[in-house]
Amino acid sequence: MKERVFTIATVAIIIFLAFGLGYFLGQSPWAPYPLFGAATTTPDEAEEAFAPFWEAWNLVHTRYYDLPVDDNLLTEGAIDGMLSVLGDDHTRYLSPSDEEAARQSMSGEFQGIGAEVEGRDGFITVVSPIEGSPAEAAGLQPGDRLLRADGVDLTGMDVSEAAALVRGPAGTAVLLLVARGEEQFELEIVRDVVALKSVRSEILDDNIAYLRLNRFGDNSGEELSDALAALMAANPQGLILDLRRNPGGALDTAVVIADEFLPEGTILIERFGNDNERLYESTDKGQAEEIPLVVLIDEGSASASEVLAGAIRDEKRGTLIGQTTFGKGTVQTWASLSNGGGVRLTIARWLTPNETWVHKQGIAPDYFIPLPEFNPDVEYEDTQLQAAIDFLLGEKIISVPPVAIDESEG
């Protein structure tokens, strides 16, 4: 009976603190949609539900064996617990240090190994290593599961807590135990300052334009616009947009970038919990609305990358080549809290123009092209990029879909 009372009281603490701390209204880098105003008192209609909060609070402060307790620590734990019980991998509390690191990464630079991770099925899972980062150089791949960091078990750990263990000052090392499929191995990675330049571009042979976009950060739209202007000035016969291992970023940036490639039409649909919808549309003012277009995607293309690829596919604007994308079909808002921390909260599903929800399914390419297994003794060949070039030159390419696994056979 005592355990039951304590559990109920604990839940009440979590709910109460969510209201009692108050949220600061802001514009989300992932979804610039007003969410709610500040709440500083318990709503009248919730007073009965919150009554156990005061009982538990008083018990902790008067009967706990090791007094005094740290109220700030209790508060952060309560918020973290409230969000974690929602069961959503993308809804989480960020401590003040995590909040600062997250905002630094969106602004263009941070210190660490340089890998986008998320919690999936109880594991800290790599979405994508950042281009040019120590994580990429060490060979981390999308889908890798980080099991331990410097001997600390990460299984079942909150993603923010795990990220704090992996992140650290430039020049220091972290030893990771990594699971890739059925294989496990250790990787020691030396942390560094990770610069997050969004765009790389060049004119390839046969006058084909190549545009690599590795993130959707605060300045990515402007960077891409400038690069695209320079490419289009060369009057290329085709354009390759490379979204491989792009873990996503700001939704509003994805919309701006999509408008460069799409004629007037739908980019995506946001669908909220109350069934309200918000439509994002493109204009007819993009720089690359008519040029033959191929988009390269893989299992590390996630979130905003899938927004862009999905719109291009549904609007029949270009051809997708590569492998099936990661599959993240939800929208988060990012709100700062008064303690310097923050909350990432899932507020909506997003759907492609044809109302497809890609969550945990991903977007399949028009042509499946595998990459060769890495062999240090053989010169690496980017078969996906070559397939994109061949397609734009009018040559035949052969799709190699992955073999379906019959689960009934065990």
Summarize the structure.
By secondary structure, the chain is an alpha+beta fold. The chain has helices spanning 2-21, 47-63, 71-84, 96-107, 134-138, 159-166, 220-232, 251-261, 304-314, 383-392, and strands at 92-94, 109-112, 115-120, 123-129, 145-149, 152-153, 173-180, 183-190, 192-195, 199-204, 208-213, 238-242, 265-272, 277-282, 293-297, 319-322, 330-336, 342-351, 367-368.
Description:
By secondary structure, this protein is of the alpha+beta class. It has 3 domains: 2-95, no CATH class; 109-194, Roll (Pdz3 Domain), CATH 2.30.42; 196-331 and 347-392, 2-enoyl-CoA Hydratase, Chain A, domain 1. It has helices at residues 2-21, 47-63, 71-84, 96-107, 134-138, 159-166, 220-232, 251-261, 304-314, 383-392, and strands spanning 92-94, 109-112, 115-120, 123-129, 145-149, 152-153, 173-180, 183-190, 192-195, 199-204, 208-213, 238-242, 265-272, 277-282, 293-297, 319-322, 330-336, 342-351, 367-368. Strands 3, 4, 5, 6, 7 and 8 form a 6-stranded antiparallel β-sheet that branches. Strands 10-11-12-15-16-19 form a 6-stranded mixed β-sheet, sandwiched between helices. β13 (265-272) and β14 (277-282) form a beta hairpin. The two termini are 44 Å apart.
Task: Specify the structural class.
Answer: alpha+beta
Number of helices: 10
Helicity, as a percent range? 25-40%
Strand content: 25-35%
| CATH homolog superfamily of the largest domain | 2-enoyl-CoA Hydratase, Chain A, domain 1
Shape: globular
What do the pLDDT scores average to? 85
Radius of gyration over C-alpha positions, nearest whole angstrom: 23 Å
Following the backbone from N to C, one meets helices and strands in this order, namely HHHEHEEEHEEHEEEEEHEHEEEHEEEEH
Measured between the Cα atoms of the first and last residue, the distance is: 44 Å
**Which CATH class of the largest domain?**
Alpha Beta
Number of strands: 19
**Under the CATH scheme, which architecture of the largest domain would be assigned?**
Alpha-Beta Complex
Overall number of domains: 3
